[in-house]
Write a structure and sequence with these properties.
Strand 11 and strand 12 form a beta hairpin. The chain has 3 helices and 29 strands. By secondary structure, the protein is mostly beta strands. The radius of gyration is 27 Å and the shape is globular.
Amino acid sequence: SISDNTPILSALKLTGKTKNGLSVGVVQSITAKENATIYSGDSKSKMAVEPLTNFMVGRIKQDFNKGNTVLGGMVTSTYRNIDDDHLNFLSNSALAGGIDFQHNWRKRKYFVDLKGFFSDIQGDKQAISNLQLSPVHYFQRVDADYLEYDPDRTSLSGWGGLLKGGKRSGKFRVTGSLNWRSPGVDFNDVGYLYQADMVNELVNLKYTVTKPKGIVRSYFVEFEQEHDWSYGFENTLDRLKLHGYLLLNNLWNAHLNLKKNFNIYDTRELRGGPNLYKDGYNDVELYIQTNSVKDFSAGFGPRFRFYSDKISKTSLFTAFLKWQISDRFNITSRTTFDHSIDHHQFVTRTTDLIGSTKYLVGTIDRNTLSSTLRFEYYISPEISIQYYGNPYASTGTYENFREVAEASNKSLEKRYIGLENTTLINNRYTLKRDGISAYNITNPDFKFQEFRSNLVGRWEFRPGSTLYLVWANTRSNYSDQLDQSIWKSFGNIKNVKSENVFMLKFSYWFSL
């Protein structure tokens, strides 16, 4: 048996700001070595599953020129004391750091923002190999000549940055940005990075009117252009967006979003395989909300995606409710239902009859239902109860399995080779190509249910010093047996086995 949590041996948090505008923050913690209990017949033994580890985050920032100029730096580190060979899949150390600079002028009407960062990870060959092959990096991509997977590497490093600036106030506004991540950058030991190996360019033009006229209180219209590519100058996405916002005198408002996505070459869909061309689509979204100042307000909006392949499609609906029951008690909820059909969903990587690597995709019909509920109750300004709950359910069925032939070809007929599937036997399909059995795959259909909630009691017994009592309840279940609809899956979350965690947090504020 393996514990879901690792004991924290010590933790430190230090924050503060001087009169001269210098801000400093440090968070540091040490987690204990964790062992799993292994049972074999009548005997049992212990095996390490987590080494002794030190985590640290440091941040420093200095304000100049009455806060119009800011210079800062940040560093994070992770150090693991690995003395068990079977834990060599973890890195020994991970260091990341960066600087940020922002300057504003003309009463903050114009600005320039610059960020730069790096990362360096050290570890056993197994750990660095896993990083190179992970979805963040995919160094093994077969059509990326600028990437090279090296199983003997013992370190991985990279860098990235952001350059942004423009005019952000007034009736007409213009901003632009350039965002980049090198293939080797990674700070997931402490932070979060979804994808390395990317460059993003974005320009935003916005026209805003705040002078009331007739029933209209204010409105804006913005146009946005985006272009994405990889570090090897592979085009991955082009996007155009037109966004309109309208606020009426009764404080009702509406958003209309129109997006066109094209030139989509997905470097991640085939999980280390070649770039997969995905047919472009138009995205239309409308959202209307009532007066949010009133005790009760609501919002609702549909969103649709229309794909040029005439097969894929998305219909998404969002409902929002807010109820201010009293000065001390309020409830908010947001519910979304998403029905999507994706003609290009990755299924598996396999080999054909002669041992060549092949990539299989299918058409997935997916339904997702999610709801978020929050409430806050203030017994007094110093004592409050807060609750957050998020039930989530998703189901997916696959059909129309295909073999990827020419991944980047814009023609569907040339991009894929159709496969015939036999009757499901022992939850597996035998896929035939030209009448001959070519592949045997596990049924990729799925059902996923999850519920996450937190109940927090807060007592601020003196200004800045607080005692927290926390109850976290989690339920999670994944199954490849799709035996019920999305609505039943959502309703049956309550039957999933739960895990409960109780925590106590004490913070004490003092000045030096």
